[in-house]
Structure formats: C-alpha cells, structure tokens
Model the fold of this input.
Amino acid sequence: MRTSWADSVSNSAAEIAISDKNSLPRPTRSTYVPPHLRSGSISDVSGTVSGTNGGSRWTGSDGGGTKPELRHQGQGNSYATAGRDAAGGGGRNNRSGGWDRREREVNPFGNDDKIDDIKQNFSEQENSGINFDAYEDIPVEVSGENVPPPVNTFAEIDLGEILNQNIRRCKYVKPTPVQRHAIPIALAGKDLMACAQTGSGKTAAFCFPIISGIMREPYAQRTRVGRTVYPLGLILSPTRELSCQIHDEAKKFSYQTGVKVVVAYGGAPINQQLRELERGVDILVATPGRLVDLLERARVSLQAIRYLALDEADRMLDMGFEPQIRKIVEQMNMPNRGVRQTMLFSATFPREIQRLASDFLSNHIFLAVGRVGSSTDLIVQRVEFVLESDKRSHLMDLLHAQRENGNHGKVSLTLQQALTLVFVETKKGADSLEHWLCMNGFPSTTIHGDRTQQKILKRVVSAYPCPDSHRTWVSHTERELALRSFKSGKTPILVATDVAARGLDIPHVAHVVNFDLPNDIDDYVHRIGRTGRAGKTGLATAFFNESNLSLARALAELMQEANQEVPAWLTHYASRAPYGGNKNRRSGGRFGGCDFRREESIGKNLDYYSGGNSGNAYGGLVDIGGGYAPGVTSAWD
Ligand SMILES: Nc1ncnc2c1ncn2[C@@H]1O[C@H](COP(=O)(O)OP(=O)(O)OP(=O)(O)O)[C@@H](O)[C@H]1O
Done:
C-alpha cells in the first residue's frame, strides 16, 4: 500500500525518536560483538533491536507492514549500535550487526584479490598507469577558514586498515592532487566545494571520507522502519551511468568495511532497487528523479543523512536539476547544512552556480585544482573547420586514418584500445550517425538519454557491415550494455549525446570527436575529459563551422590556456564573435572558477593559498585580500 510521504515521515519520525532534524540524537556506543556471534538476531547479542529480516542484519520488519519494535539504548533513540571491528583498527565501527556481511559480499575485485599480494607497501605496487609527473606542478587554490593541510600519501590519512587495503586493491599508489587536499578537508568535517580537472580522481576524494566517516560513527547502526530506510550518506549524480559507476567504485572502496552502498536510478524498474534498499543501505547513490520518487513513496528517508555529496555539482545545480535538488535537500527532512556535511565536486564551477551552491553549504572550503588534461598536453586538442554537409565524410577520413595509422601523435592505439567517442547534439542524430557508421564498416553503438522512446539501437559487432537482420533493439534498461560493448572494444565507436559527457570513466578512450560542438564551453571540457584521464594521453577533435560562432572565443581561450595550437581562422572567428559559450563562466576573458567569495568579501577572514603541488606552496597562508602568491598563476584565474 502506498503511504503518503508526510504520513510516513511523521510516523517514522515518532517511532525512531528523531524529533528534530537538526539535532539528530546519537546513541551510545554498544559493546563489541564478536564475529562468531554475529549470525544471530541482533537482540541476541546487544539487546538493542528485536526482529530479523530473513537473515539480514538490518533492523526493522520484513516489510510486511508490521512496525518494528525498536528498543532504545542509551539516549533513547532507535539506532542499534554496532561494535568495533578489531580488523578495522583505530576504534572503527565495523557496522556488522545481525550478520557478517563480509562472508556474503561479492568480491568486487574478482579473483585479483590475494591478501598476501596486497599486503605490500603502496610504494611497491604497480602504478595503475597514472602519470604522476603530470600532476606535480598543478596550481592549487584553497580558501576558507582553518584549512587542514594536504597530505602526500594515503598512509598519512587515517582511513583505517580495511579501507587502506581496498585502496591497495585498486592499485592507487598515492593520492592525486584533489585527493591530497580534499580528503583531509572532508575528514575534518568541513563542507567543501571542489573543482578539479576531469579524470583526476574526484570520486575517491568524496567516497573515502564518507565511507571512513560512517565506519567511525559510533551511533549509526542503520535503521529501517517499516519499509522506509535511513541512509547516512547520499551521493547524487546526474545520470544513471554515472551513478552506477560511482556505485561500483564505492563498492570497491567499501569492500569488507560493512558499509553498504546501494544505487537507485531512473529509467529502470524500481522493484529491484526497492528490494535492494530493503536489504539495507548506508550510502545511497542516486539520480535526483528516482530519489524523489523513492522519497515520495516513503521508501527512503533523508532524516539520518550525515554526508551529502553532489558529483558534477554544477550540472546538478543548473536549471535542469536545481528544483529537484532543492526539493531533496531543503524539503525532504534532510538535516540542515551545518548539521550534515556537504561536498560538491566538479571539473567546472561557474560563478553563478557557486553562488547558488552556497545555499547548501555551511562555511565551506573552496578548493580548485588546475585541470591536468587541458593545462598540459595530455589531451591534444584539434579543431577543424568542417561544413555541416561534410561532417560525415570528414569523420570517415579520420576513422580510416586512425585504423590505418593506429596512432594519433602521442596517442598509441591498439586494436582493442582504439575507442572513439563521437559527440552529437541530438538523439536522432546519434541514431542516424551510428547507423551510417555501421553501414560503412565501423561497428558502433549509441547512447543517449531518450526517456520517452526508451530504446537504444545496439548492433552486433560481427555484422560488418551490419545488415538489418543483425540489428538488435534493446530496451532502455540495457543502455549500460551499449556502454559495456563499447568498453570491451566490441563496438569501438560510441556515438553519444551529452548524457555521456560527464563523469564516465572509460579506459582506453583514445579519441573524442565533437562532431557537433556543444553550446557551452564547460560541456566541451567535460566531453573531451572522457579521454586523457588519470594522467594518460588522449586526442580530442572538434568540427567547427559558422553555426558554432558563439563558442569561438571561449574555445580559443581554453585551447590557448591549455597550450594548444589555435588555428588562425579560429582566432579570427573569436575576435569577431560575441562572448558566448557560457555566460556564467567567464567575464572579460577570465575563468570563473575561483572562489566567488573572494570577490564578494575582500577582507573576510578566509585563509587562502595558491601555488603548485610541490609542498612549498603551503609555507604561508596569505590573506584572501592578498590575492595570489607572487609569480603564481592559477588555472582558474
Ligand atoms: N590515487 C589514484 N591513483 C591511481 N588512479 C586513480 C587514483 N584515484 C583515482 N584513480 C583513477 O583515475 C580515474 C579517474 O578517476 P575519477 O573517475 O574519479 O575522475 P573524476 O575526477 O571524477 O573525473 P570526471 O571529472 O570526468 O568525473 C579512475 O579510473 C580512477 O580509478
């Protein structure tokens, strides 16, 4: 039976004795529950909660409509507290109550997970291909009050042994710049607005502190009341692919920590997601639309949220998503800013969006890490003048050259690795180009966000060229399959709309083609950022013509800033073009990525430092009014 949101919230609020969303009561620490006792009912060992759920260690009823009988311990709230985990070290909460998750948890690392192998030092490990030299001189700006110093190694951060093991399993040798700065800030409980270049490891930068924080929280055995679950962490992202990717990453990071991560996204049947939620959730990764649905069905409550992260935050707060985000954050009983911890991450952060975002933040720290991909030559950017009518044949030429030469300058392409991502403006255009490519001997697939038709065309790669009989229509729920087919190299060309522009981390994308340029330079930054990730090189080619005039100036500036060759004709277009390409981002040719508070509050007591990443940049904090340290330029200014 569907219960109204308001009813459900008020009922459950009464039951779990969370009387004030801004003063979430914290239970006392419970006694340690030895692993051999964890298989039974929680009440057997802690006397905290009665009722089991088919073997789940989640508290609450079995979803049959009976309210769980929650007994309180200590401060009179409903949170059953978990014991400490000896293996976790450092007094961490292992979050194991009624059953030991570690026995049932699927190993997200597959077979590549021999503890003996991973017990080696970080320094002895295989570097996962990241080019750390490229990061050494990245300009960094930080502003805010009491900024914790950055770290140089994971060992310097107290994340706990289990999380450290997972970091080793991921083959992360040392933190990327955004991780060096953001993780200590987040662990200090500060709100954070972080801008860092595409492919620089932002996902881990917000996941590690959330997972670690939940493991540390003494109070937070997760609670389910009736069918409503109460996650502690919420990560919002704009697309289902990105949500799934964050979920996959977060599951790796949280492996064997007892912290349960669940994903919910639209365009897929809700029932399976509901079942998964009923099994328990500590961190919910979600797209806004589906989350609102779950909140309105009272299947999720945000009352217990301690950590809120918005990935691609500028996208989440632009006109498309802002109303939903406001609803989620401000009208759905989530603890207020200042009570919860809020972290916003993106590679781009227009000034207007920063201003808007400050509604969700409390006394936040602003962090900007220069964009590795575009400020170095890791992504080689080319722009070619191509008339609309010539685009297809030009693309064909590029693909033939790529196939024959097997390389693009610095970018070595093997057959399996030569993945090419082609961005187009419309869904129809994507389907049409994919069909044409396929008919011309280039196995392709497509991905776009058509929610009404909810179908994508997937071609069988062996059909070469693809006859109609080999074409397979797959349902929208299989959009991920198209992505998988691309990732695996079965269909090494993916024609996509902007739905694939942000966040997706696809190894071996060597070439991004902007068949149709976007209207906004920030979208261009995100699109080309699908290559040249984690220190690897990449190539980005853009087809420009008169219809892209409004982007000319922003594009020329961006390329220049990234030390790219700007064709004379583009400079010419730029000089006579009105300023466009993102009204919010720049004014007077300046990047708008720096802390907007600096401009609006000169003289406020904000710490501020800027400089490279070599360590000496932190020698002295300068007052915000002092601007940049002498001789230091920022990628954001
Ligand atoms: N410390 C690290 N060492 C090695 N690889 C890392 C490290 N941190 C992250 N990575 C890898 O770098 C890649 C990019 O990371 P991630 O997807 O988090 O980037 P991002 O900054 O969120 O990019 P985008 O702006 O496009 O969303 C991933 O494959 C990730 O596994």
Residues 158 and 409 are 42 Å apart (CA to CA). The radius of gyration is 25 Å. Residues 202-216 form the longest helix (15 residues).
